[in-house]
Specification:
The protein is of the alpha+beta class and 250 residues long. It folds into 2 domains: 209 residues, Macroglobulin (MG2) domain (Immunoglobulin-like, Sandwich), CATH 2.60.40.1930; 39 residues. The chain contains 5 helices and 11 strands; from the N terminus they run αβββββαβαβββββαα. Helix 4 packs across helix 5. It is globular.
C-alpha cells in the first residue's frame, strides 16, 4: 500500500511539473540507492516519468565499468579441457538492461541504436590496451561469449523489458536487480524517441552498495586479504571439527 501511494503521488507530481518546465521528458527513480545487506534477495527500483507530445520511451540501465576476461576452453590430448585463448574487454558494463514501450526491433533505426548503445549487440565493447590483434570474426566470437555469460548471470537482459504507459503522458517501469548484482555507480538513461529521432533524453545516477555488517566484512576482506584468508580457513576447520564431533556423539 505504501509503494502504491508513493507511485500515485510521484506520478501526479511529474504530471503537473512537466508543463511548467516545458520539457518533453521528465523522469526520476523511486530510490537512488540500493542497499545490499545480509539476506539480500534482489531489489526493484521503480522509474516514473511524463512526456509531452508523442513518441516512444526507451530506458537503458548500465554500470559500473569493469575489465572482463573471456577465455576459450579446448580439449588437450582429447580428454582434458584447458583454457587456451583469452581476450580482455576494457570498461565493459557489469550490468546492462533495456526497457521500452514497444519492441525496439520493429521501429528503432540501427544507426540510432548503435549511437546510443541500445541493445547488448550494440554495446561498444573494446579490447583492453596491449591485447594481441585478432581478426574481426575472432573478436566477435569472444564478444558474443561475454554477452551470453552475462545473460546467464542475469546481469545483461536477454530481451527488452516493458515500459508501461499509465496514460497518454505518464509512464513507469521497474528495474530489477538480481541477488548477485555488482556494486558501484550506475547510470539510467531515458530517451523519448519520435520518428526515428531522439526528441529528448535524461540521465539519472543510481548507486548499489553493501551496507551494515556485510559492508564491514567486505572492507575487511579487501583491506586485510591475507588475514581474512587465514580466518576463513580456521573457521572452516573449526566448523568441520564441530560437525564431526556431533556426528560421533549421535
Amino acid at each position: 500500500m505504501a509503494r502504491l501511494r508513493l507511485t500515485v503521488l510521484f506520478a501526479l507530481s511529474l504530471l503537473f511539473a512537466a508543463p511548467a518546465a516545458a520539457q518533453p521528458l521528465v523522469a526520476d527513480l523511486s530510490d537512488h540507492l540500493v542497499k545490499i545487506t545480509l539476506g539480500f534477495e534482489g531489489s526493484e527500483v521503480l522509474l516514473f516519468g511524463a512526456v509531452e507530445g508523442g513518441g516512444d520511451v526507451v530506458v537503458v540501465v548500465y554500470g559500473p565499468p569493469e575489465n572482463i576476461t573471456v577465455r576459450r576452453k579446448e580439449k588437450t590430448a582429447g580428454i582434458i579441457w584447458m583454457n587456451r585463448d583469452e581476450m580482455v574487454f576494457a570498461k565493459a558494463p557489469a550490468f546492462y538492461q533495456v526497457m521500452a514501450t514497444r519492441p525496439i526491433g520493429d521501429w528503432l533505426p540501427d544507426a540510432l541504436r548503435e549511437r546510443h548503445q541500445i541493445g547488448p549487440q550494440y554495446l561498444s565493447l573494446k579490447l583492453a590496451p596491449g591485447q594481441t590483434a585478432a581478426s574481426p570474426d575472432e573478436t566477435r566470437l569472444f564478444r558474443d561469449a561475454l554477452i551470453r555469460r552475462k545473460q546467464i548471470l542475469g546481469h545483461y537482459s536477454e530481451s527488452v523489458g516493458t515500459v508501461a504507459m499509465l496514460s497518454a503522458r505518464l509512464f513507469r517501469t521497474g528495474v530489477r536487480f538480481p541477488t548477485n548484482v555488482p556494486t558501484g555507480a550506475y547510470t539510467v538513461e531515458v530517451f523519448l524517441i519520435d520518428k526515428g529521432e531522439v526528441v529528448s533524453a535524461q540521465t539519472t545516477p543510481l548507486y548499489i552498495s553493501k551496507v551494515g555488517v556485510l559492508a564491514e566484512i567486505f572492507h575487511f576482506a579487501h583491506a586485510y586479504a591475507a588475514l581474512y584468508g587465514i580466518l576463513a580457513i580456521v573457521l572452516a576447520v573449526l566448523a568441520g571439527l564441530g560437525a564431526n564431533a556431533i556426528f560421533r556423539k549421535t
